[in-house]
Amino acid sequence: MDGQVVTIDLTDTTSAQVVRNLGEPYRDVTGRLADFLRTPGRLVFNYGPIYPDGRHQATQVTFVGEGPAEHAFERPGWWTDQLRELARFYRRAQFGAGEVDYADYRTQIRLGGDKNGRHVQETDTVSRLVYGMATAFMLTGEEDFLTVADRGSQYLRDHMRFVDTDEDVTYWYHGIDVDGGRERKLFTSEFDDDYRAIPAYEQIYALAGLVQNYRLTGDPAIKADIDGTMRLFEKFFADPARGGYFSHIDPVELSPHSHALGANRSRKNWNSVGDHAPAYLFNLYLATGDERHLRMLEHTFDMIVSHFPDRATPFVQERFHADWSPDRSWGWQQDRAVVGHNLKIAWNLTRMNAALPKYDYQRLADRLARSMPDVGRDPRRGGWYDLVQRQAPHDFVWHDRKAWWQQEQAILAYLVLAGHRGGPDFLAHAREAEAFYNAFFLDHDEGGVYFNVLANGIPYLVGTERLKGSHSMSMYHSAELCYLATVYNGLLVHGEPLDLWFRPLPDADFPDRVLRVAPDVLPAGRVKLDGVLVDGEPFTDFDAGAMAIRLPRSAAPLTVRARLTPVERP
Fold first, then answer.
1. Residue 379: CB partners within 8 Å, gap ≥ 6?
2. I need a surface site. Which of 93, 443, 449, 527 has the fewest CB within 10 A?
């Protein structure tokens, strides 16, 4: 990966395997190791000691495919199968094999899927689980996943929602502390960075699962809460004078300028401005086609390209004062860069450029995509780092570990660029990131994915980073990766058809009762809706180019299966 030549010494105990998916058996190729190594250009991972004299020994060799040019994770169905296994893991961990009852939900899930004694249910992690399960249904059509998503959405609305009728807005509690049959609402955040405030990102991620579930069902009650939360953002978080959204508001004054907010007073950051788009806003726009949501997307990305770039470093600025002057003294961030946020911006700018092309969107996405490998990627072992100094030589801040969600951002950034624009460099970076993630983050013993691995790919199982469920981890990032890797790899890069499942209700609140089934914001004219089944029967009232289905009237929920195919280029 880094262009250097390294000689690896094999021994009579060296073993070899091929990358395998969750739910697949160990794929031993030790007996064919010599044949595998005869083909130049293979992407392989070697684990073993490095001796003081510089010799590298192979203890275990991992290949990314059987054939010399094969990448196992590009096999049709790979990411769908992975998502199915992830959904089964979290279903089993949270609810067992019986009825789905969110009273049993826990934020913290141990490595093997069992629960600890603390019974705090955080709104955002419930919503992230709902997102994951709704997405799993969308890709697989398995009823049980939709049941988990539907009941999670209802639980959020019944237990974690506050509707302010005076202000005509909807808030979401940080969570609830359950003690026996009693609930204690946690209105403000319990997380150290946001303690006793209402952070924008918690309200943002409360919508992630609800919006994805709404895409499937059109549930009017969910839509009403989405709209109420959107009014909350515009009424209390938005900066009408300078643009963007503030990161926190005070729970008493409902103001971003309250002195009670301390270091979070009058601040904006990546999460409060940019996280709307990937967490819920793209999906809401895909579901509704509403121009208001496109305008909000445009506004947030205009703020990013106007204020985030920094000519002095390869990285963007991530934190700001109210006037958009950079804040380089806040908390743990200081003058430091989160590698994954830079990749996330490149990924989402590329999506936005497909929805509303602008030169500045493509220019910043391209700049970040081309500069990040030199400052955030491990060229020897693969994978992407976490937090580094923004100023050269860009040293690590705490460690050289690699988090699962940052690998997701790298994979999606380079896959979307390869799919939208083509180019061997983008696809090569995507494949390297996919290879590292699939080789080292999948837990083949217990299920799910690891939170963090060491630089060499060995799982890091210490403290909260050994958990499969926490304040930071539920099912959102891993499910989003599986879903969009299927879209970008299959539809755009390899030209494979894609089936998606929906379950619109009889009173579905879709504009003009049109079910929009575009899987993501894609380049115009690249994908079409090729066929539709409604309750198992062929259905023809659809617009192939717009990927939109005019739903028939019904007294019961409909099962809609949409087949999307790439449009052949002349």
1. 1, 2, 3, 373
2. 443
Tens-place pLDDT, residues 65-123 = 998 889 999 999 999 999 999 999 999 999 999 999 999 999 999 999 998 766 789 99
Cα–chain center distance at 190: 23
Phi, psi of 17 (to 5 degrees): -145, 165
Return all residues near 8 (Cβ < 8 A) that are at least 6 apart. 46, 48, 56, 57, 58, 61
pTM of structure: 0.97
Stated as kind and residue range, the H or E segment containing 336 is strand 336-338
pLDDT exceeding 70 applies to what percent of the chain?
Answer: 99
Residue 90 to residue 107: CA distance in whole angstroms: 11
Q: Which segments within 236-294 are labelled E, that is strand?
A: 248-249, 267-269
Q: What is the per-residue pLDDT across 344-390, written as a single tens digit (0 to 9) for each? A: 999 999 999 999 999 999 999 999 999 999 999 999 999 999 999 99
Percentages of the chain per state (helix, strand, coil), in multiples of 5: 40, 20, 40
* Structural tokens at position 51: 């001796």
Distance CA 284, CA 511 (A): 12
Q: Which amino acid is at 564?
A: L
Dist CA 214 CA 231 (whole Å): 18
Angle (CA) 237-243-249 rounded to 5° is 20
DSSP for 170-185 reads EEE-SEEEEETTEEEE
Which residues, including other chains, have CB under 8 Å from residue 19's CB and lie 6 or more apart?
27, 62, 63, 64, 65, 72, 73, 435, 438, 439
